[in-house]
UniProtKB/TrEMBL annotation:
This is Cupin domain-containing protein. Residues 31-87 form the Cupin type-2 domain. It comes from the Bacteria. Pfam families: Cupin_2 (PF07883). CDD domains: cupin_KdgF.
Amino acid sequence: MPLPKFPVANPDKGVQRQVLAENSDLMVVSFRFDQGACGAMHNHPHTQSTYVAKGRFKFFRGDEALELGVGDSIVIPSGVTHGCECLEAGELIDCFTPRREDFL
């Protein structure tokens, strides 16, 4: 049985989001960024892990600023304000627990 195909959303200019897999406990999401695009600063109650599949990004997590490239990852605890700037076009693979109902 093939996996369901989720639609592509555009949450910010130059950013495409697509849910890859989900259940009530976990969600896996692809975010594709054009160079210079930003993921707006925000927070949510979900714990998030982010893996850099392609490109380079400057992440802002709380009071930290971190530059990450291919193969790097970061965990963002529940409630922590965060965002990013894409330095080189790329893709992030994010996991959220529990799933982000607002992405469905």
